[in-house]
Amino acid sequence: MKIITKLFAYVALLLIGTSCSKTPYFDEVYSFKNHEWLQTVKPKFVIDVKEADKNYVFTLTLRTTTDYKYSDLWIYMNTISPDGKKAREPFKICITNPDGTWIGIKTGTIVENQFKFGKSKLPLKGKYTFTLEQGITESKIDQVLDIGLNVEEVYD
Q: What is the pLDDT of residue 2?
């Protein structure tokens, strides 16, 4: 019964959050098996860019349970552009405030945190591959439900 309640709350939140916004250019979620992010698991997102030099805003959404034991999560984003060039960038998603209160949106036992990248251009047409790695020294992180990548065009 608890799972049905959680699922209903998540779907309702998703519908409310997306009903008034524009359609994203790209929106995909990777769910972790058994709520564990193993170091060997590297979610991959492939975006096919049809027009070069447009502005985009990238948002990563991380969902954990309230039993997640850390205050943040370091992630590496590995990027391969259509011409084969590679880049690797570390960043931190803050999950709790210093006093232990949740930063993100808490619904029941689920906490959703977002990390927005600034406006950026993808200079080439073609497929960009973004691969995420968890950046802690333990072999797995417990209580991580999923991670998603959302890309929206910015119209100036």
A: 53
